[in-house]
Structure formats: structure tokens, C-alpha cells
């Protein structure tokens, strides 16, 4: 079109309107001079010829550089407008769009006639044809040359000499599309992709250059809401914030040398900018990008700092929070500041855990509102924590300062914990004020819902006798509906015990009514001076200290509405540790929920009169037929110093937890203070050092009679440590076992302690089945998991219940046809020799693979033991102990 309308037509016009033609008539001029011809004919057609040549050259470039049909059509349309602009103006003039005068002139030109001589006509045609051929040759030659230069990148290289010919193909595709592709094109040598990356580079000035030439489609990828790990680098703002948001990157915690959890510890944030590389390397299966781990609730968690924060990191795949948590720990550590005196190393805090292990109360009698130790005890605090099952963490719930309680319920003479009781469900708290003064020193007890508002005075029980010290010791039942209160100085030091019952249906003034009559002590017996307790299920039994520190037990008779004393076959003397007025002995006495079993610890603090500190624990059981109490099995003892520091029994009395804390390492504990003045007893120690263990004992009817409560072996954690052993506390420099609590069903163990290095108290809660082999009942639990070689183990040590000797032995091999036969040496099955011991000679192992007879088919039986099925009944009761199963079993 350009060739036809501009180039060829202009050449044709030179011949048709040559100077020798009647050009003057065609253009309607009367002056036929060369000057006029040049101005009116020569110059315009020369311009038109040049225009055609320029358009033709531009078309070469457009065709060669075109990236698509649409762009090509757009460019050609533009060229057509330029090329045909004069024709368009002529058309407008011809149709009167530009006025009548121009219309007449245009029509005259359109309808004009002119003559050409034959010679001129022939010459003109030849010239035109020659010109057309030349133009065609020039066009194709030009196209070919440009195409070759374009394909070789010569044109690109001439424009961008330092960008590199190798990048031409990519540049041809990406240049001038108004989007920043990046890669090798977003460099100063390539003029930042020909200007396409100007906007992008303003937003991300460092996300370019030769070092980042591998990054492609940068403008589309960055900030698209999807993390692309290629762009998770500092120069590209971590994929425009898609991989690691701005707040994380600007935090002082980012890359501070500590492995922060949550959003910090993700692949997009480069594992806390390298701080968590070792964590990721050690635990590659920890799902760091899981929604449960990158939620806001994990802000502030530091992995590997020794503090268990709890939550989704506390799993095996994440190394139990990078070894911060112990295997089986529920929730995180509850750490408590300001609970130790700097002058005498006295650790002062106490815990109460509810039976379902969902609520925890921590009493800090000398901790002020800023978390500092206050020796005057003017701002003590009670803190509440509840377990969040969604985040698997303990949540600080509510606190109540001591001044608030004092204002409501009177003055305290001693630490609040010594006059405090909490119901088993954790909902009800009672605080005794035995020295409360109102005209006279009558004492009072306040009962309230800790998790709600403090109730009105209807929840306050007032003493009725001067100087009786009403509320000196108190205890609540599990549901908080019964309370026992001692008044040890009542009736001239005889003492009095009262039990009150909550009656929601009664009038508000009689919300708490006395159950039965008063229990009055003998003359000067001071009953209830050292201890008072209730069975948690219904409060039908009350336990309290009598004269000479004897433990007395009374049961409520519903018919007579009286409290009846129960007989005890052996005098139960409270330990020396309890025989102090300001010591709460609930840690040393524990009672089953139904009240049919209790245990007493003889924990011995260190002093000049008590050099041996190995305590004991004695268990007593109620015999309904005899209506009396009897010792249940031998006394439990240990060679560990401070054994029996705290004991706890579950509701059915089948599990018993006992802690041991060396009195030489626990500072100035409350058992080592002088009765008056609070100074340290002679010979006692206030040093702090790593100590503490917790042992768990289990009762089963099938246990041997010489150990009805059998100590359970501990399970080693992922670091092959037993966290409830003293060696672990020495290594960690902490004190463990100041208090222990078993949940009602015995599935959860709560332990308190003190971290010496970090200077705070703590509370830890554990799944019992993750700490102890709960069904492994053996004579020597210390043999389980002691790293000894596995030499032909047998039942009961080599069983699933005992972890196949605590992991010291390999798992049992599979035996073809005997899938349930779990033995260490499968070669002994069916070897022709009867191995008469379990598990070999069992039904599961086809009685040693057929080598042994079925004991149930042996003609001879053991008298008195019909369930004792053995191959050789004569071995039973033959004067020799055959210490293997089934001979040494409950059935035999």
C-alpha cells in the first residue's frame, strides 16, 4: 500500500505532470514557470516519495520485530494513516468537509484531463516499471538483511551493547510489554528491561542485578499472596512479604541468635534468619508451616531455651519443643517469679490442682503485684491458671491479691496458704482467719468462688468463741459442698472440729449449716492444731490431729446425726514435720476419695536432732467388716534424702506419688523453721542445689502381699533421661517435687519445683503413662531401661507393658504362624526342649512350639490354687522360690 500510494504514485506524477505536459491546466495556474512547477508539483511529490520510503522502511522494522498479529495490525494501521493522510485530506475537501472553495479545486483535479506524448508515455511507463522492480528488490533485500540482523541479535546488541546477545531471545519476548520480567534483563546494562522494570525497581530496589538473574517473572510473583521460596530473600523483601511479613523482619527477635517459634520459624523466614537452622536439621519432620504452629498464639516462644511453652511444638516430631518440654508434659511450664527470699533462700509458694487437671491455683504469700518477693507479705497473690485444650497451653486466668482478702475477711497472722483449702474441682476456695478480731478474737472462714466474684457475707462463717482460733486448719470436699474447720484453742485448749454443709435450697442466711454436732477433744488435747482433712467424695469422714500428735478419724452417722470415732489397730502418729503450728500438713497426708485409704509421710527435714533424712510412707486401709483401720503392707522407704516431701493419692487409692527433695538443697523450707520467730533450726541448711525425684507406686489385687504398692519403672525420654530422677535435676540445676498432685483418675501428675539458674518457681503437668510403665509390676523396677545388655530376658521384664526391658532389648521377632508369640529368642520355640516359663510355655506360643504340654491338661493340680496352671505342680510350695512366671504369680 505504501509503495502504491506514495512511492509509485509520486514517481508516476513526475511523468504525468512533467514540465513538458499541460500541468498548468491540471493545477489551474496561468503561470507556467519552473519555479511554479517545482513548488506545486515537484516538491510535494518529492515529500510524498520520501514519506513512502520512510513508511516502507518502518514497515521493515515492524514486520521483523513484531511479536504478534494484533500488534502487527495496530502498527500497520498507524502507518496507513500516516501514508494516506494526504488522500484523506483530499477526500474531505472533495466532499465539502473543508469548504466550497477547496471542494471546487478538488473536483477540478479529480475530473481534470491532461495529455501526454507517446514518447513521454513510453519512457514514463518504463521508468515506473523499473522503479517498481528496484523498490521490490530493495524491500526484500532490506527485509532479509534486517531479519538476519534481528535473528542474530545484532540490532539488539547495537542498542544494548552490554546486555549480551545471549539474552536477545528473552528480550525479544519480554521487552516493552510494560511488565518487569526480571532475570538477566533487569540490569543497568539492559537498561532495566528497556524501562519495563522502572516501577518494580522503585518498590524493590535491591531485587535485581546479575546475582539475582535467576529470578523470573518478578513483578507477577512478588506480593501475589503466595510464598515462592525463590524470592524468600532479604533483597526481595521475602517475596514481597508473602513468605515473611514486614513485622517479623523488623522485629529485634529476627536473627537475634535465639530460635523463635511461630511465624519466625518458617521456611519463608529462613528459619528465623538462620537461628533455627539446627532445629530444622535435627527435626525435619516438624511441620513448621502447619497452621497450628504459625498462629499468633506462638508469638514469643523460644525453642531450646529450657522453658516449655507447650502447644503443638510439644510433640515427638518437633523434639518436644526442642527438648524444652519433657516427654509426656501437658501444656507448658507455669513459671512463677518472686517466690524466694534473697536473704535466706526461702522458697514460698504453694499449688492446688483440681481433680480433672484443668485448673491450677498458685498461692504466693510474699509476692507483690510486680512479681517481686516482699518479705513483709503485705501484697501476697493467688494466681489462677486454666488449661486451654485448643492451644494446649496453660492460660493465666485471674489473680486475687492478699490485701483484697484481708479487707474482706479479716487480718492474717500467718501465711495465707497455711489457712487455705481448695475444693477438688478447683471452683471453691476457703480461707481461714483464726486471728480475726471483731470486738474479740473470734476467727472466721471465708468461702468463695475463685473464678467468679467474691460472694457476699453469706459465704463467711464466723467463730462463736473468743480465742478459739476458729479456722486454724480447714479442708474442703471435692465438690466444695462440705468444709471441716478446726478451733484448737476451744474450751480451754481441748479443741473442736466442726463440719459444715452447703445447702443451696436454704435461705441465704443459712447457706452453710453444721453437719452433726461438734467433735470435742479431751482436756488440753488441742485437736485440729496440726491437721484437719476430709475425704473428698462426700465428706463423711474427717481426719484430724489429736493429743500427742495422734491422727484421729471420725465418721458421720446419718441416723444419729453424730460423728463416731473409728478404731485404728496401730497408733498413727503424725511426723515431726507436721508438729509445727504454721505448717500445712496436707502435703504429708493424702486420702482416697471414699476415705477408705490414706497414707502418711514421715518426711524428715535436716536439723541438729535429725541427721538422717530418709523418710518413709505408711498406708492404712479400712476394713468394713471389722470397722477398723489397719496398716496396708509394709512401710514404703527409700534411700533418697528427703523421701516423702510430698505425697498424693488418686481418687480410688490405687496410685500413690511420692517425691524426695534433699533438705540440704532446698533452701530454708517451711519444715526447717523454728516454731517461733521463723529462724532456721540448728543444723538445718538453706543451700540451693539440684535435687528431687518423684516415684509412683501402684496397687493391684494381684500384687504380692509383701508389696501391695509396687514402685513403677520410669520411661526414658528422647534424650535417654528419666526426668523424675535426681540425676536429671542435678544436671539441670533445679529442684523438683516440692509438691506433687495426682489427678482424680490418676492419669495426670502435677509437680512443682524451683529453677535455680533461671530464678523462678515452676509447675509442670505430665501424662502419667508417658512417664511410667503403668502396667509393669516387677520386683526390681530399676532394672528396666538401665542400659544393661539384654541377656535372655523373660517375663515380666520382656513384655510390651515393660517396654521390652525399657528399650534395652530389641522388639520381639515375628514367628510364622504365631503372631501373638512375643519372645526374645525365637530359636527356642519348637527346638525340642520344653522351656517351662512364660512367655514360651503359653497358649500364644503354642506351648513352646509344641515342646511343652498344655498345663491345663496336666492331671495333677495345685490344691487351694485352682487357677495355678503349671506344667510341674510339685514345684509349688516345695520350699524353693522359683522366681519366674507362672510359678511366682498371683494365681500360684
UniProtKB/TrEMBL annotation:
Keyword tags: Membrane, Transmembrane, Transmembrane helix
Residue ranges crossing the lipid bilayer per the database entry: 46-64, 76-94, 127-147
Xref: SUPFAM superfamilies: DPP6 N-terminal domain-like
Domain of life: Eukaryota
Name the record gives this protein: LNR domain-containing protein
Amino acid at each position: 500500500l505504501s509503495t502504491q500510494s506514495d512511492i509509485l504514485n509520486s514517481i508516476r506524477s513526475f511523468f504525468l505532470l512533467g514540465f513538458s505536459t499541460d500541468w498548468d491546466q491540471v493545477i489551474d495556474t496561468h503561470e507556467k514557470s519552473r519555479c511554479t512547477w517545482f513548488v506545486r508539483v515537484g516538491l510535494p511529490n518529492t515529500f510524498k516519495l520520501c514519506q513512502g520510503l520512510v513508511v516502507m522502511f518502518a514497515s521493515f522494522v515492524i514486520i521483523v520485530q513484531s511479536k504478534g498479529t494484533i500488534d502487527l495490525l495496530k502498527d500497520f494501521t498507524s502507518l496507513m494513516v500516516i501514508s494516506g493522510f494526504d488522500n484523506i485530506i483530499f477526500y474531505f475537501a472533495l466532499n465539502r468537509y473543508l469548504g466550497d472553495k477547496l471542494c471546487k479545486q478538488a473536483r477540478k483535479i479529480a475530473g481534470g484531463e491532461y495529455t501526454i506524448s507517446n514518447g513521454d508515455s513510453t519512457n514514463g511507463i518504463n521508468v515506473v516499471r523499473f522503479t517498481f522492480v528496484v523498490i521490490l528488490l530493495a524491500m526484500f533485500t532490506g527485509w532479509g538483511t534486517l531479519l538476519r540482523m534481528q535473528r542474530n541479535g545484532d540490532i539488539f546488541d547495537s542498542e544494548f551493547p552490554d546486555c549480551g546477545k545471549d539474552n536477545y531471545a528473552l528480550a525479544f519476548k519480554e521487552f516493552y510489554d510494560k511488565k518487569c520480567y526480571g532475570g538477566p534483563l533487569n540490569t543497568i546494562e539492559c537498561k532495566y528491561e528497556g524501562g519495563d522494570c522502572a516501577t518494580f525497581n522503585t518498590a524493590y530496589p535491591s531485587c535485581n542485578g546479575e546475582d539475582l538473574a535467576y529470578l523470573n517473572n518478578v513483578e507477577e510473583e512478588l506480593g501475589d499472596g503466595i510464598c515462592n521460596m525463590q524470592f524468600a530473600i532479604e533483597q526481595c523483601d521475602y517475596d514481597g512479604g508473602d513468605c515473611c511479613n514486614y513485622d517479623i523482619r523488623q522485629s529485634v527477635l529476627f536473627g537475634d541468635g535465639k530460635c523463635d517459634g511461630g511465624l519466625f520459624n518458617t521456611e519463608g523466614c529462613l528459619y528465623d534468619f538462620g537461628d533455627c537452622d539446627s532445629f530444622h536439621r535435627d527435626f525435619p519432620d516438624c511441620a513448621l508451616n502447619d497452621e497450628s504452629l504459625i498462629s499468633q498464639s506462638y508469638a514469643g516462644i523460644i525453642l531450646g531455651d529450657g522453658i516449655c511453652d507447650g502447644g503443638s511444638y510439644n510433640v515427638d516430631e518437633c523434639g518436644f519443643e526442642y527438648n524444652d518440654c519433657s516427654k509426656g508434659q501437658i501444656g507448658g511450664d507455669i513459671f512463677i517469679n518472686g517466690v524466694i527470699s534473697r536473704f535466706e533462700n526461702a522458697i514460698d509458694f504453694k499449688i492446688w490442682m483440681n481433680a480433672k487437671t484443668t485448673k491450677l491455683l498458685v498461692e504466693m504469700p510474699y509476692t507483690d503485684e510486680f512479681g517481686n518477693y516482699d518479705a513483709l507479705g503485705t501484697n501476697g497473690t493467688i494466681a489462677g491458671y486454666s488449661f486451654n485444650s485448643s492451644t494446649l497451653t496453660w492460660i493465666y486466668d485471674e489473680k486475687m491479691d492478699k490485701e483484697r482478702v484481708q479487707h474482706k475477711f479479716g487480718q492474717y497472722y500467718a501465711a495465707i496458704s497455711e489457712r487455705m483449702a481448695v475444693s477438688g474441682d478447683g471452683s471453691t476456695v476457703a480461707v481461714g482467719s483464726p486471728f480475726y478480731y471483731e470486738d474479740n478474737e473470734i476467727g472466721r472462714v471465708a468461702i468463695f468462688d475463685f473464678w467468679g466474684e467474691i460472694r457476699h457475707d453469706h459465704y463467711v462463717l464466723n467463730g462463736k468463741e473468743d480465742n478459739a482460733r476458729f479456722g486454724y486448719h480447714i479442708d474442703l470436699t471435692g465438690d466444695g459442698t462440705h468444709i471441716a474447720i478446726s478451733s484448737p484453742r476451744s474450751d480451754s485448749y481441748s479443741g473442736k472440729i466442726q463440719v459444715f454443709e452447703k445447702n443451696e435450697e436454704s435461705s441465704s442466711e443459712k447457706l452453710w449449716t453444721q453437719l452433726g454436732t461438734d467433735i470435742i477433744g479431751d482436756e488440753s488435747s488441742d485437736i485440729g492444731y496440726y491437721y484437719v482433712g476430709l475425704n473428698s467424695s462426700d465428706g463423711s469422714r474427717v481426719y484430724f490431729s489429736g493429743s500427742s500428735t495422734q491422727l484421729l478419724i471420725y465418721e458421720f452417722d446419718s441416723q444419729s446425726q453424730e460423728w463416731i470415732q473409728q478404731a485404728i489397730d496401730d497408733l498413727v502418729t503424725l511426723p515431726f514435720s507436721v508438729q509445727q503450728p504454721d505448717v500445712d500438713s496436707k502435703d504429708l497426708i493424702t486420702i482416697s476419695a471414699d476415705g477408705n485409704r490414706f497414707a502418711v509421710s514421715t518426711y524428715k527435714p535436716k536439723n541438729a536432732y535429725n541427721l538422717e533424712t530418709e523418710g518413709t510412707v505408711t498406708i492404712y486401709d479400712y476394713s468394713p467388716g471389722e470397722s477398723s483401720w489397719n496398716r496396708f503392707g509394709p512401710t514404703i522407704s527409700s534411700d533418697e534424702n528427703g523421701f516423702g516431701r510430698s505425697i498424693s493419692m488418686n481418687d480410688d487409692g490405687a496410685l500413690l506419688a511420692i517425691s524426695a527433695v534433699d533438705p540440704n538443697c532446698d533452701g530454708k523450707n517451711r519444715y526447717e523453721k523454728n516454731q517461733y520467730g521463723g529462724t532456721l533450726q540448728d543444723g538445718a541448711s538453706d543451700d540451693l542445689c539440684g535435687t528431687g525425684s518423684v516415684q509412683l507406686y501402684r496397687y493391684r489385687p494381684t500384687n504380692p502381699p509383701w508389696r501391695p504398692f509396687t514402685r513403677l519403672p520410669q520411661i526414658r525420654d528422647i534424650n535417654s533421661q528419666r526426668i523424675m530422677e535426681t540425676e536429671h535435676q542435678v544436671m539441670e540445676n533445679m529442684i523438683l517435687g516440692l509438691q506433687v498432685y495426682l489427678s482424680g483418675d490418676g492419669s495426670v501428675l502435677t509437680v512443682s519445683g524451683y529453677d535455680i539458674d533461671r530464678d523462678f518457681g515452676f509447675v509442670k503437668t505430665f501424662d502419667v503413662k508417658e512417664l511410667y510403665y503403668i502396667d509393669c509390676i516387677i520386683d526390681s523396677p530399676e532394672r528396666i531401661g538401665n542400659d544393661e545388655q539384654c541377656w535372655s530376658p523373660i517375663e515380666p521384664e520382656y513384655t510390651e507393658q515393660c517396654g521390652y526391658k525399657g528399650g534395652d532389648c530389641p522388639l520381639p521377632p515375628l514367628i510364622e504362624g504365631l503372631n501373638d508369640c512375643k519372645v526374645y529368642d525365637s530359636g527356642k520355640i519348637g527346638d525340642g526342649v520344653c522351656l517351662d516359663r512364660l512367655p514360651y510355655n503359653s497358649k500364644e506360643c503354642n506351648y513352646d512350639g509344641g515342646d511343652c504340654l498344655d498345663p491345663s491338661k496336666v492331671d495333677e493340680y495345685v490344691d487351694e490354687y485352682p487357677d495355678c496352671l503349671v506344667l510341674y505342680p510339685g514345684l509349688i510350695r516345695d520350699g524353693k522360690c522359683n522366681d519366674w512366671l507362672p510359678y511366682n504369680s498371683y494365681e500360684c
